[in-house]
Amino acid sequence: KGDILDNYLRTDGAWILTRNKQFYQTNNEKECAEKCEAERNFNCRAFLFTRKVLQCLTLAENTKMAVTFTSADAVLYEKKIYLLQCKKGIGMDYRGTEAKTQKGIPCQKWAERTPHNPNYTPEKHPNAGLDENYCRNPDEDENGPWCYTTDPATRFDYCNIPECEGQVMYTGEGPTVECVQCNGEDYHGEVSRTQSGLECQLWDAQEPHMHGFTPKHFPEKDLKMNYCRNPDGDVRPWCFTTSPTKRWEYCDIPSCTTPPPASALGSQCLSGKGEDYRGRIAITELGNVCQHWNTQFPHRHGWIPDRYPCKGLEENYCRNPDGEKRPWCYTINSSVRWEYCAIPSCDETEQGIADVPAQVPLSEECYQGKGQNYRGTTSITVSGKKCQAWNSMFPHRHEKTPDRFPNADLRENYCRNPDGDNSPWCFTTDPSVIWEYCNLKKCDDYTHEHAPNYRPARTAQNVVLATPLTSDCINGNGKDYRGTVARTGRGRICQEWNSQKPHSHKYFTPVTHPRAGLDKNYCRNPDGDINGVWCFTTDPEKKWEYCEIPRCSSSEHDCGKVSMRSERPCAQYS
Amino acid sequence: MCDASPGSWPWHVSLRKSTNVHHCAGTLIHPQWVLTAAQCLQESTEPSSYRVFLGIQNLNSAEPSLQIQSVQKVLKEPNGADIALLKLNSPVTITDHVKPVCLPETNRMVERNAVCFLTAWGKTRGTDIDNRLKDVEFPVLENRICNRPEFLNGSVKLNEFCGGFTFGSIDNCEAEVGGPLVCQDKDRFVQYGVTSWGLDCTQPSKPVFVRIPSFVSWIKNAMLLH
Q1: What 3-state DSSP class applies to A4?
Q2: In this structure, are strands B12-17 and B50-54 parallel, antiparallel, or unpaired?
């Protein structure tokens, strides 16, 4: 058996105005929950607990039935079964408010005796939730829930209660379970209703609520359909709702009671942004001692350890629970709210990356050969598009998955070359562009400091805008294109121009068109095709196809461009 | 906030009243149009009451790049949003120091992890204005965060959004009314917000911005009609 509180949905800082309530004095929330379970005066659907005066109020109503408002010191717990408007199994636990049959006939109240004299009444079955005229299943009917109808000719009929959608999450390789670990950031299930039963808005839609959590921009967050997700590290999955008056709401997906997997134990040194750092450094880089996460003094804050069980908010150790640049903490210095911590880097232990020959530099910005050993973290294409994560099938379905190419290091959305293409590439997050080569140079070229057209990516201190390499974009129909893209818009690899296999094409060869730039297997436009550059493909069943090369930016729309930006020694945040 | 590099925010303009004293910020969105907050025009909707100073880094210096424009028309958003358009008497000369910012697509809000900047000549807590244009990288927050009880407690409307940090505070409040929140989109900057309210220096700074994607249609139609 789990914690009694697992049956409740917790909302901090909320209060509801109810008529039927009972006051108790309890020491904690659990005791208050026990009062609710044992409540005899009414059907307890929720309870409020105030932390300062330890007051417990059991309530007959919940947020679906009463007005809510904020109250900083209160915690509201609502029984989950009363919030669900769907049924699990045969609906024995269904406590929703559907009150008509599948044919649309209003239900008779369970406590009334006309038009039908019921066998099942609230008195005889006090635990069956026979409130009002709501559909219920007090007799374990396989087709339940049902109700007596108000039609004298029809004694009872079944109700059309939707099944609760699969409340499951993926737990890596293992079996699926009906719960979410931690705050549900890894939840990939298909629940698409909020805790109060509202339908979720499609993540890809901007109506009725405009927002920035678009699948295009967050390919790694799996923002599919209108499924509940937690893309921003909130306490649990949520969604924008289809109700114009309710922008968003949490979804009611049960939490697992088992601890997170051992892999989440974390690191004792700094890698990446240090989100997995679980070491014991508790002093900031400027020497301030860290405030304990479970205290609110001297600084009030929302990173309460209980609410974020998987963020490692122990003691006063430096942590990065919110995707900051590196671990940080609130400080005990009342005039310094928070500061970053100086955590030793894991670099020393990370250098032996598998499959990378010793002579290959671990460079972020360049690749050697065809870049099959490139292991950097660049994830931007030549035209500035963001890469799609390799393990994501959105916006593009593909077969270049980490399990099929285990040695290709298909991590995150980093540029890679798993298939022996000419250079690292990736699928893009732009639904209209399947894939593109990445904004990377060959290491040998990169050693020339003034390599033409190359500008470094943005760094923390130096805002420099990445611009496409002009040779990798087309003007007009692309007749002058001399870039190195060698893959068609549908992802097929191009055939070399001087090869006759698999497709024979005597006319378009480097000899017949010496000025058309028919080098290797690069996309070209030797015949002035008005639709752009193309190539013969290596697919025996597809002789030729157009390539998708981004257009070079036009100077007509020069808005928003700045010609000057410099490094600034000033700290970013005062 | 840091002093901005000269010319790094060439759309940021100074709106002044007839006294030539800096009154509000605004942005150049077209060679002949400036976007600002409607509250900056409360005292008068008479175009001749205002002048626009463009291409300056320092409010009180006569920099070579300075261009001054009179206002031909004042158009406030008809439904009461805190946003307004000023039509300049004539198109400005586009230079490296005077250049329009891009507008976003209609109803398309900035992606959540975009790099955005707040620029302002505003006051720093406890000090007088120091006259130099400043900037700070500033995250856009989702309204559900802004509207939490500990932040702006439900007062941010659908056509607004707030920015700032969910922990810590910025010990200044440089945001100033009418000024922009711009976000980087590849090699351009796009304006997503007009600074509106929430600038109380005694509180952790959570400026609230008018959500421009909601008003792009109005802006474009107004420019077309006028």
Answers
A1: helix
A2: antiparallel
What CA–CA distances, in Å, run from A554 to A379, A411, A470, A475? Answer: 24, 34, 12, 9
Strand partners, A544: A536
Q: Give the span between the Cα atoms of B29 and B43, in whole angstroms.
A: 23
Write the single-letter amino acid at A217. H
User: Which residues are paired to A147 by β-bridges?
Assistant: A157
DSSP track, B91-134? PPPP-SSS-PPBPPPTT-PPPTT--EEEEE-PPPTTS----B-E
Strand A67-79 relative to strand A366-367, pairing: unpaired
Specify whether the CB–CB gap between B38 and B82 falls below 8 A.
yes
pLDDT digits (tens, 9 = 90+) for A362-389: 335 577 778 888 877 778 887 777 888 8
Backbone angles phi, psi at B197, to 5 degrees: -155, 180
**Is A284 strand, coil or helix?**
coil
Q: How many CB pairs under 8 A join A and B?
A: 130
Neighbours of B217 (CB within 10 A): 11
* ipTM value for the complex: 0.81
Choose, out of A559, A563, A566, A568, the residue to mutate when testing the contact with B (most B CBs < 10 Å). Answer: A559
Rounded-to-integer distance, Cα A121 and Cα A129, Å: 10
Q: How many CB atoms lie within 10 A of CB A203?
A: 22
Task: Note the pLDDT tens digit of each residue in A465-511.
Answer: 333 333 467 766 788 788 888 888 878 889 999 888 888 877 788 88
Residues within 8 A of B (CB atoms), A 243-302 only = 247-248, 300-302
CB B139 within 8 Å of CB B165: yes
